[in-house]
């Protein structure tokens, strides 16, 4: 293939991808805030909520900010927990979380999950754990 043909092909690929991104972005305008919340939980809170450990760790201020900002639209985050993750293979986001640790983080950040609240496959028990750590 000649150099000019390669340039034309790449320009076509870039054009098609740009159109697809713009179309996708146009349809997803309403979900952008939710995606931001999901990224926030993943970046700032995963350490405190993952099932890597059973110990309760108090979240830092950045995680608490994500939690309090996302709390009014928490159902959006809960609905995202069925998304698949790369590791472990075949697992979902929700399966990588420890619900006891999640409840601790929300309580520590002064926005406890209400008893009976349904999030993904988990229902908050009648008596969520109190703050266990100083």
UniProtKB/TrEMBL annotation:
Keywords in alphabetical order: Signal
* Key word Transmembrane present: no
- Its domain of life reads Eukaryota
Matching entries from Pfam families are given as: LTP_2
Q: Where are the transmembrane segments?
A: none
Is-annotated flag, keyword Mitochondrion?
A: no
Q: Secretion signal: which residues?
A: 1-25
Q: Which InterPro entries match?
A: Bifun_inhib/LTP/seed_sf (IPR036312), Bifunc_inhib/LTP/seed_store (IPR016140)
Identify the residues that the record assigns to the Bifunctional inhibitor/plant lipid transfer protein/seed storage helical domain, covering every copy.
Answer: 17-112
Q: What is this protein identified as?
A: Bifunctional inhibitor/plant lipid transfer protein/seed storage helical domain-containing protein
Give the source species. Answer: Phaseolus vulgaris (Kidney bean)
